[in-house]
Structures are given as structure tokens and as C-alpha cells.
Amino acid sequence: MDWKKNLQRKVSAVDCNMSLNQKLINGVIFRACRPVCHEDGFLTEVIRSSWPEFDADVVQTHITTTLPSRIRAWGLHEYSADRLFVVKGIVSIIVFDCRPSSTTYGLVNEFKVSEKSPGLLFIPPNLFHGWKVIGNDEAYIINMPTIAYKYENPDSLDLPYESEKAKELIPWRW
Questions:
Q1: For residue 20, which of 28, 10, 30 has the smallest C-alpha distance?
Q2: pLDDT in tens, 77-88
Q3: Distances (CA, A) of 95 to 4, 38, 75, 105, 108
Q4: Helix, strand, or coil here: 83?
Q5: Domains in the chain: how many in total?
Q6: Of 64, 69, 89, 88, whose CA–CA distance to 145 is shortest?
Q7: Is 11 domain-assigned?
Q8: Residue 145, in any domain of the structure
Q9: Strands 29-32 and 119-123: what pairing?
Q10: How does DSSP assign 145-165, residue by residue?
Q11: How many whole angstroms separate alpha carbon 152 and alpha carbon 12?
Q12: Structural domain contains residue 19
């Protein structure tokens, strides 16, 4: 039985109540959304003003796509929060807490989402985040940021995934 020492025990992504089985970064919210089957197909709510977790108005909505196996990382907003919803494809979304004053400083969260396992992910300002398409199809992601995009002065800071600084700073590699 010496070969067993090389095995790793699987960790479930959810607990027995189907809640995420990970400590969330301070301010990050994930609300699982349930597709409802009807005679013509499916309906999935993306966001509702009555959901208490999402009290900021929707000021802009856009769709971004990412091709299979592509990585879009690392981005950070100083003032705006992102609200991400995967419409199509299978995506691994990573959030990293780089805020030294945060109680979850250094923590990494991973969310695997798709149209079959959807959820609305709220990422507050000053958290690095990015994603990789882990399925075989192009992914379509809706974003509803809390502050509208400013063309003359975008609230978007990038740290290229392949850069040495990213490899030093962010403890996650796909």
C-alpha cells in the first residue's frame, strides 16, 4: 500500500447544504442561481433588486467573451465592483485578496461556473481577479459593474498573467 501515500483526498466544492465549501474573501459574494425548466427551455434569473446582497444599482451591463483555454488575468478595480455571470461556457474564476488591512489578506477563492451551474459573483474593489475557460467552448460572461466605464480614465489596472510580478504576487497558476 506504499502507492497510497502519493494520493490526495478529494475536497468537495460544496457542503451537504450545497453551499460553497470555502472561506470567502472579505466582501466577495457568490449567489448560486438556479435554472428553472419550463416547456420551452430554461429561465435563470441573473440579478434582482430584491436580493439583499446586491444593493448597488446596475449602471452598465456588458458581455465579454473568452475563447477556449484562454486566460484573462489579472485585473483589479480601485473603485468599482464587478458582478459577473457566466452565460455560456465553463469558467474557473479566481479572486485574490491583496489588501494588507483585510482579515482575509492572502486568501484565494476559486469559482467554477457555467450555464449549467450558474451564479452571480460580486467582486469588490481592490481584489485581483481573472478567469480561464476550462471548457471546450467560447465563454460568454455578463458584467454589471457598480460604476460605469469611464472612457477617458478607466478604473482598470492590469497585471499580465505571464509577468514575473504576477507569478511573485499572486499564488495561483492554472
A1: 30
A2: 999 999 999 999
A3: 32, 34, 10, 11, 6
A4: strand
A5: 1
A6: 64
A7: no
A8: yes
A9: antiparallel
A10: -SS---TTS---EE--TTSHH
A11: 44
A12: no
Write down the pLDDT at residue 34. Answer: 87
Cα angle 44, 122, 143; round to 5: 65
C-alpha span between 139 and 158 (Å, rounded): 21
Q: Count Cα neighbours of 57 within 13 Å in the Cβ-side half-sphere.
A: 4
Q: What residue numbers bound the domain in which 131 lies?
A: 25-169
Could you tell me the CATH number of the domain that includes residue 142?
Answer: 2.60.120.10
Residue 72 · residue 66 · CB < 8 Å:
yes
All 3 cell numbers of residue 101?
A: 488591512
Residue 16, pLDDT > 90, answer no
Give the span between the Cα atoms of 51 and 140, in whole angstroms. 23
Residue 150 lies in a domain: yes
